[in-house]
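Example record

Each entry pairs one chain with its bound ligand, magnesium ion.
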Amino acid sequence: MSQINLGIIGGGQLGSMLSMAAKKLNIKTIIYSDDNEAPAQNFCDQFIFGEYFNKNRIMEFINKVDVITYEFENIPYETLNEMNKLKPVLPKPSVNRLIQHRLAEKDFINKLNIRTTRYISIEKKSDINTLEDFLPGILKTTTMGYDGKGQYPIKTINDLNSLNIDFSKGYILEKLVKLKKEISVIITRFGNKSFEIYEPIENTHEEQILKHSKIPAEIDKKIQDQSKEWAISLAEELKYIGTLCVEFFIDRNENLYVNEIAPRVHNSGHLTINAFNISQFENHIRAVCSLKKIPLKKISNAKMINLIGDQILPYRENFKLNNNEFFFDYLKKEIKEKRKMGHITTLI
Ligand code: ADP
Ligand code: MG
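Structure tokens for the complex follow.
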């Protein structure tokens, strides 16, 4: 087959890892990002810097690629839709539009009779007065949230009054789940009933940011089967092409809830690079570039630790790794508090 040029929108660490996986498959990557310092430019073949509404830069990008995918979900729908008229965008733009809106996403999941947390749409401050039933809860912006950004814990109505929230944006209020555990299921769908699914991954968050992931997840068989079944239904219903991650909550009574869907490769799946024959990144590329689906084989149990902010520093200084440890530095120019700077996966 002739050379494939894959366009990737977004230049963060997920874009870097997609580029590395593409290289292995002899696919060229062209990244488009609105961040001049995007770390993925260190890993891709070509990098185009431009805003998501810059028609000229976007045309330049489209002309260079055969197929387009994305590594984060907050891309304007119009941009994806316009691109899709000229080159295929996968997963398709309508999937992204649905999932980037927390309310639309949760309504969609509930329509499939899949449980989510209880939630209600909030459009103005007065809406919140009748919401005792949803407290304690978390107020979340309906769009543009990630790593806990745009989220406010609300214990009582008074908490809301003391917060300076910009109600020109939409919000949902979600009832707080008494968490026992969080897990995620990553699935790559290639077409009708054709997919590869990874075993559930157990995740621990600190300050709403993922800190640790591990396989196997310590969960019972029922939860394991249910979470995979739900991930398959969601991917099928969306007619999804590529890798998708479903984040779940398990409460203290062993009830399973879908927290959210990520229409992309996911941080909790970094361990798939070392723990499986095919990583979530390679699978994503195989699916969006119509390459062969290869049966997944697990190589090892594993755990992954995110290095956040200056936790990266000791690892950068000649840190001695054992041969079951794999360190990844995202090469971000600036260390910032709460910024994911790298990760380390250990096979166990
Ligand atoms: P993001 O888009 O930033 O990943 P999430 O909705 O996944 O936002 O929230 C991040 C983390 O915050 C979750 O993984 C979980 O640890 C905690 N959290 C969010 N919503 C709830 C909830 N309703 N109940 C309990 N914990 C929650
Ligand atoms: Mg999340």
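Residues 181 and 250 are 5 Å apart (CA to CA).
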